[in-house]
Amino acid sequence: MPALDRLHNWFGLAFAYRLDGAGGGTPIGWADLTGPWPHGQTWLHLDLRHPNARRWLREDSGLDSLTVEALTVPRAMPRLARRGEHLLLVLKGIDQGLDAVPGDMVAARLWTDGRRLVSCQTERLRAVEDLQAEIRRRTGPADIGGIVADLADRLMTHTDDVLEELQGATQRIGRAGNRARHPENLVAELATLRRRMILMRFHLTPQRRALSQLAAARESWLGAADRRLVREVVHRCQHAIEGLVAAGDITEITQDEILQRSSETTERRVYSLTVITAIFLPLSFVTGLLGVNVAGIPDADDPLAFVILCLFLLLVALVQLWLLRRKGWL
After folding, report:
1. Which of 44, 168, 227, 328 is deepest in the core (most CB within 10 A)?
2. What percent of the chain clears pLDDT 90, i.e. is strictly above it?
């Protein structure tokens, strides 16, 4: 990252561009934003982790207090709100940074009136960084509508990648559970996957609704191509939700199968121990009775007494096995 961008980010301004209408833009700084906004379409991206960004929103942005609160609220859910010609859009995306927990969804908060676009983040978003890199190379969107639609598409692309990973992990655990000697060890991993899927559905459901409203909005700055792209993102979002539901059902079935197999294994072991105990109980009784250290044990001095006793105990065990098999317990 260039030194100028590091300085901007240090003061809460991650980057700002005055768009040239041809896929590129001219970088601008705080000095260009303290008074009247520059002519033409402008996009600035704020890092809300720095207090100066919040101060600028409150004091110098010209936005009303409700909009500032919506842009800076700690826990933002996907939604779309319109006030006249102004539009507030909150989207969720997957943070693919090196220090991110896989599957984490962070908020991209957008406000625009068609000429100005203010976006905010509290955590790193690779989709925003990729879009900024394209503007630097002069291959990005030409206007505000293109940026909003492109950003929604990129956020969904990263979400699709994580969804494929979750579905692949679900299939892998399902195959492993069928041949694992101790499948109950996979239950914790399945529970983690199900929690991640539930959280993604929790965010994607309102995001689909917000994007549907955006595609249907009568905003002059949102072109026909941008609307088509947003509608395509809505379709992908719906597909992702359905995929999460299906994957969640598969994990639930797999978890039930694993728990059932574990329960059956435990029951078989307990049953085997019960049968062994039932067989050796009378044998232990006889040997214990004959082992009493008192006088008068029959045939105590007979050299064949031990052999006869062993044969008798074997006969008793065989009779018990026959009775258990006859009753269908074996």
Report:
1. 44
2. 19
